[in-house]
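Continuing the series of single-chain predictions for the mutant panel. This is the parent chain; the variants come on the following pages.
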Amino acid sequence: MTQVARPAAGKPRRLDAFELPSEPGNERLALARVAGTVKDLGLSEARLEKLKTAVAEATMNAIEHGNQNRPEIPVEVEVTQDGDDIIVAISDQGGGEAKPDDQAPEDPDLVRKLEGEQSPRGWGLFLIRNMVDAVNVTTDGQRHTIWLTMRTGGAAHAKRV
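Parent structure:
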């Protein structure tokens, strides 16, 4: 069995950081690069696929909603490891005031969408939240960041009992 080297808890280690132009389709570049970065860190194939889906959705949101598809404004991606946690931070420049929880988008309802009572859009954040172990969103001025956390090893199983 191969052992995966992990940093000491509390000492995050940067694994990769990169920028992508805010152009539709670049979410595929982000998910491929993140997957290549974390492939040997102990995620099962199924959990790696979930992380890739979450990274793609978050990057698409950053490109489209945050940076308004303006290629001159990059989406920033940073991958760190903190103990058993793989953390992917995806930032755009679509900040401003954070929405209070009571104004957060409602979860999609397939029946309501099919009946035209909800927009056919709006699956991104719902998918992201259901693909990774934790999601945090921060806004600092214009900088908006979504933090995706996927646990490896025993920590992953502890949450998903």
